[in-house]
Amino acid sequence: MRPPLAPLDGRLDRFDLTVGTAVEFLRGTWPELQEVRFEIGAIPAFEATDEVPRWYLDRENRRIVLFRLPIERLLPPGHDDAAHRRMAIESAVFRAAAEYVGREPWDLGHDH
What we know:
Elements: H1 11-29, E1 37-41, E2 55-58, E3 63-67, H2 68-73, H3 82-101
Parallel strand pairs: 1-3
Antiparallel strand pairs: 2-3
Helix pairs in contact: 1-3
């Protein structure tokens, strides 16, 4: 008999779980997102002009790449706690999905 596995409690695990939960909600609400792949990258692999991007949209290949480090690390001072990180992650998922389908983020909820 093996010992029990350690719980998923690292920052990467929490990021992945938060993204996955938000994506499943959106896919259940918006059929346009059913075939879209949501991927997680550490940082953008390209030069940013004005600000560090939080996500990248690739409509041709039906994918959205969320950049973990900018989402988690560029929070306002005093907001670097678990609750604010989770809200920033969920916000990024919703904003990226909204941009992908050409809607406002608040249109993506159940009451659209």
